[in-house]
Design brief:
This protein is of the alpha/beta class and 426 residues long. 44% of the residues lie in helices and 13% in strands. The longest helix has 16 residues. The protein is elongated.
């Protein structure tokens, strides 16, 4: 059974990554930053932490305003550094724990949190600034991660209470995972700062101390505060500390403060915090009931004949071929798909099996492998193949046999323009 050993709080300012990458360990102006993370690293090593559930916010790098979600859970096995404008940091990618991330995703949705999920996306300083500090002279931290990206830069933000409730649901999710793992919940962001407008440079160290004390001893007071209260006391961007309530909500009522430090050298009051969980083991019957609750909605769906539920596991295993076919929505990719397929497939790293599946129009074999229908529909449109022809192929029938089972024998497609008119006249 997975167990939550404790919680970590850490700022994620780009200051941190900059200091590490430029070797400022012994510079008196920068050393306090390293001192704080030394304490976190020592605790993580002493407690033999296997997985860090890392709560952060992206800074309009991998998550842009055209699709901005409140809670986005990573379900990948690798998280590489993003290019934030001047090239990516030279740090090792973090390794994800696929099984735990997929289990947490199922559990949170079962508990009525409307999650989004990501894979194949790089991570920026919100994630890597604190995590990269857990490595030492022997290399990067060797454990695995499960990231949660929280949308706290575009209003409206989830409330402090919603963060707290997510943390409570997260505890149920982690403790119901059957693998024997030591897990730490790491919340990042803050403390007080503002980086835009005439209020840029705002700091409030007195509030930061109060926040940390309340987080330890009386988190319910923080839960009852509004986002506007956090912005007033800690700066508009400093309101991101509501993410720390996810971490605190995942811990038991009884915690021991192992370490706490703040340092405000410039724009952000940089904090490091370790809270060790003193709660007892969960009730075995409650865990069994929660596992049943997680699987309730989909129980039996996997046994439906001729049905292939598109799970996170299937999605992850087939991301490359699904992405390749999804890219057919781009005119240049579409044109090369038709005129220069071999070179295009090589550039996208397709395996020979994937190439054969596509070139052979092996529709049902692709579905069985884990290609989602809605990219096959795009491929069919590019090739001038109607949807009913694909459905017939799934069933091992000719188009005529399939049409005979319909009320109306029709052909249609998601294609547009001349492509769809040509199909209609065929």
């Amino acid at each position: 059974m997975a167990r939550i050993v404790g919680g970590i709080g850490a700022s994620h300012s780009p200051t941190i990554g900059f200091a590490k990458d430029t070797g400022k360990h012994k510079d008196p102006a920068w050393k306090p930053i390293f001192d704080g993370f030394d304490k976190i690293r020592a605790w993580v090593q002493a407690k033999q932490i296997d997985v860090i559930f890392l709560i952060y916010n992206d800074h309009i790098t991998s998550f842009f305003l055209d699709h901005y979600s409140a809670f986005v859970l990573g379900i990948d096995d690798r998280y590489a550094a993003a290019d934030e404008g001047g090239g990516p940091r030279e740090v090792a990618p973090a390794m994800g724990h696929l099984g735990l991330s997929q289990h947490i995703g199922m559990s949170l949705v079962a508990d009525e949190f409307d999650m989004s999920f990501f894979q194949g996306k790089p991570v920026d300083h919100g994630f890597l600034s604190p995590l990269s500090m857990l490595g030492d002279e022997h290399g990067p931290w060797p454990g695995q991660v499960v990231p949660l990206q929280v949308g706290v830069l575009q209003l409206p933000l989830p409330s402090a209470r919603r963060m707290w409730k997510l943390g409570q649901a997260l505890r149920r999710a982690i403790e119901s995972y059957p693998e024997d793992l030591n897990v730490a919940i790491m919340a990042t962001g803050g403390l007080s700062h503002q980086v835009h407008g005439e209020r840029a440079g705002f700091l409030n160290e007195a509030w930061d101390q109060t926040f940390l004390d309340l987080l330890h001893n009386a988190p319910e007071q923080l839960v009852n505060m509004r986002i506007a209260d956090y912005a007033l006391k800690g700066g508009m961007e400093g309101a991101e500390v509501v993410m720390w309530l996810i971490m605190r909500g995942a811990l038991s009522e009884r915690v021991h403060r192992v370490h706490q430090q703040t340092y405000a050298p410039s724009m952000t009051n940089i904090a490091t915090l370790v809270l060790e969980d003193l709660g007892g083991p969960p009730d075995a019957a409650a865990l069994a009931a929660h596992r049943q609750h997680i699987g309730h909605e989909l129980e039996g769906a996997g046994a439906l004949s001729g049905t292939y539920p598109f799970t996170h596991a299937r999605s992850h295993a087939n991301l490359r071929i699904n992405r390749f076919l999804h890219d057919l929505v781009q005119p240049d990719h579409r044109a090369r798909f038709l005129s220069d397929f071999d070179a295009l497939a090589r550039e996208h790293g397709l395996s020979q099996e994937e190439i054969d599946l596509i070139q052979g129009r092996q529709w049902i074999e692709m579905v069985r492998r884990g290609v989602i229908f809605f990219v096959l529909e795009k491929m069919a449109a590019v090739l001038g193949v109607s949807n009913p022809e694909v459905y017939a192929a799934f069933r091992g029938e000719t188009l005529e046999q399939f049409q005979a089972s319909r009320k109306v024998a029709m052909r249609y497609s998601v294609a547009g323009g001349e492509q769809v008119r040509a199909m209609d006249q065929a």
